[in-house]
């Protein structure tokens, strides 16, 4: 069975890096008035604000989400409100409150209002130093060393619990680093892979905060959006996993990223000065095995490193 169709969608964290672009893609697919964007305090872009409904809410206060959900007869939530890894290490209490209590509020509300589906992205931050780093399996040891990773592991388990205990259709995928030219990143360890493009265009040089040989799984935003929607629309009867799908697209080192940019901007210079984020990056995989996602819902990325670099530089050049 495919399950019920999504008709009225609420997006939390809609002003963030992924949320801002996912909201626009959902509005194009499901109709602008059927996709309700929400954020906590950051001012949305004119495009986001003018293309459909927008509300300020606080996911740690369940009544604020419930008021919007009831008003618009929401049947599906894409829950993207989160505190990312680098910011989370500076304020662990905030990360726990938003990432865990916020998710709990969303799941409780979805059950209370008999919603169709909840999509909750996870992250490669669930892995740790004990995890195999190359071609990291979908099923493996999860012992993260960051509060962000801890909350994402707990979030996966909580989502699976609500599926098996209460029959709530909760789905999630473990995103790698996400690269986009539309919205600046929001305090994650993989932010260098976005900032490097901006600096290459503006200043022809970049000082990277991880080592040159730091290799991590990455994904271009169009593939990130595609993955979220493909999983959300997948036939439930085909899913053996629910909240913990590995999804991969490409893996490259910081040096290889700089070299890719240099193919198009020959005078670009990149230096490397690792900071506290290096330790976080070293605890994450170099690449992931996403065969369950490919088998269960047909996941297939569309971009490799050079295709992404070409598109990023062209888009930022126009900006």
Domain tally: 2
Sheet with the most strands, sense and barrel status:
6 strands, parallel
Instruction: Predict the CATH topology of the largest domain.
Output: Rossmann fold
The percentage of residues in β strands lies in: 15-25%
Give, in order, the helices and strands: EHEHEHEHHEEHEEEHEEHEEHEHHH
Discrete helix count:
12
Global morphology:
globular
The amount of helix comes to 40-55%
Q: What is the tally of beta strands?
A: 14
Distance between the termini: 45 Å
**Averaging pLDDT over every residue, what do you get?**
95
Name of the CATH homologous superfamily of the largest domain: NAD(P)-binding Rossmann-like Domain
Overall CATH architecture of the largest domain: 3-Layer(aba) Sandwich
What order do the strands of the largest sheet run in, or round the barrel if closed?
3-2-1-4-5-7
CATH class of the largest domain: Alpha Beta
Low-confidence stretches: none
What class do helices, strands and sheet pairing give? alpha/beta
As a whole number of angstroms, the C-alpha radius of gyration is 19 Å
Q: How is the secondary structure organized here?
A:
Elements: E1 9-12, H1 17-30, E2 35-39, H2 46-50, E3 54-56, H3 62-71, E4 76-79, H4 85-90, H5 92-112, E5 117-119, E6 122-123, H6 147-166, E7 170-171, E8 173-175, E9 177-179, H7 192-202, E10 205-208, E11 215-220, H8 221-233, E12 245-246, E13 250-253, H9 254-262, E14 269-272, H10 277-281, H11 291-297, H12 305-318
Parallel strand pairs: 1-2, 1-4, 2-3, 4-5, 5-7, 6-8, 8-12, 9-11, 10-14
Antiparallel strand pairs: 11-13
